[in-house]
Task: structure prediction
Amino acid sequence: MKKFFLFLLFSSLVFSCAVSEKNKSSSVSINPFQYSTQKTITCSNGAVVSAHPLASKVGVEILKMGGNAVDAAIATQLALAVVYPNAGNIGGGGFMVARLSDGKLIALDYREMAPGRAHRDMYLNEKGDPMHEKSQEGHLSSGVPGTVAGLFSSHQYAKLPFEKLIQPAIDLAENGFAITEREASSFNALQNDLKNYNTVTPALAKENWKKGDTLIQTDLANTLKRIRDKGQAGFYEGETARLIMEEMKRGNGIITLEDLKNYKAISREPHTFNYKGYKIVGMPMPSSGGLLLNQMMKMIEDRDIGKMGFLSPQAMQLMTEVERRAFADRARYMGDADFYKVPVAMLCSDKYLQERMFNYDPVKATPSSMIQPGKLAGYESEETTHLSVIDKDGNAVAVTTTLNDSYGSKTVVGGAGFFLNDEMDDFSIKPGVPNMYGAVGGEANAIKPGKRMLSSMTPTIVLKDNYPYLVVGTPGGTTIPTSVFQTIVDIIEFNMSTQDAVWKAKFHHQWLPDEIMIERAVPEATREALRKMGYTVKDRGPIGRTEVIKVLPDKKIEAVADVRGDDAAEGW
Ligand code: DON
Result:
């Protein structure tokens, strides 16, 4: 008898989808109650790096089942929506950059969209002052979610049926998983917000979470099952849409059934450029990521930064100055190109970028007051998550998705079990008024119905001899493009190991405020040298959670997860 109970206990612990969903078995075999976190791996057949060990494991199981990197990326995102609720999501949006084994390059935009009833001044009070509390929390802060549309749109490049890819997430939600220590403290810190922004008690509402506690999310499991059974309509129509509507009514939100039904993921032309023989593939508007990376890399290309050395005052100064200049352009010119004419070609032309560096002084800071957005001839007018995946056939996928802030709007859709984003704050709610990441903007990124808010997310693939060399990305708001920039420079120019490039110190400058934000590990001598050159140097907490996959010359795969979080690298 005792043995039988032990057996029952064990079989309920080892999470096998066959137990809960006959015929819809994903047959992934992962123990969600006992798992370890691996930070690096070198392997041959494929790898997944993501923000949570269980999500990375789900991705690799899908590869082992015969899925390609796109299958794995879809399953990993869905698993993250369950095991990493502060950023993994179905109530947010994201971008996928991919290079398929036949060489095809893909950029998929499933960014959230302003609802039809949104308008330019919706976050200003009668006096015209910004109401950040409305754009950053609660029902009014949410854009129309894009993630589910993105998952289905990317599925055209996948091999396995969608049901198989979503089943591990359903099981994790239904049967639960053991939370990490970091999650326990994050859930504990969230409790007041949950009370303030919810009328229906969410699964996360509980005092005193501890490492190893089980999180079961029944409402979320049911939503995922509707998506499994009805496809995209299982989210944007029917019961889930009805629950979103009811939530909107309870909290005076403005997303309508029509907004949900009209949402579409959009395939875009990737933003590509060459850097010293590498081809870099990034996300175009409405992400500023690809263009900013292009501008920053091109502004350093002919300056032999490799000789200056990692974290040397000279290298940090040069990188800071190009970051400053690129971000000044972001504020003025960048936004959803379907609504605003973004002068992409001019902003990344060699001539323009050379001129942009005319007042660069290698021994002195250029104050931001002296850097305005560049003049163009003939021209008018922290919580996100990244995953990198590769398979043995050279399919490489970089996905960054977000709810914007940690747990987004902090509002869970009652009865549907998922957080809605607070992405509306990524619009410029008033010209020159900083958003939660300090980014400023104007007309290019003003709110309009149906428009997508400007992003900094920078999922990126670096190709060498037309084969994937690096798959890179990170969360971190406006620090995203600069972290991706630094990671690529660390590997290509400073010849650093992948692990050092991911784990070692990062820094950030975004034009305004005029300061270099620096992780603590930057040496005092470098800080002092920078201060002497006229920089304001400010300590800040960890920058990003970068996930990198590098393909070695013998085609072995090296995957590295950031030490700044629970992030994990899995492969086989
Ligand atoms: O799209 C963007 O740029 C932001 N919503 C990203 C937010 C983010 O990275 C928060 N993570 N730490």
About this structure: The mean pLDDT is 94. The pocket of 6-diazenyl-5-OXO-L-norleucine is lined by residues 382-384, 402, 404, 423, 426, 455-457, 475-477, 480 (CB under 6 Å).
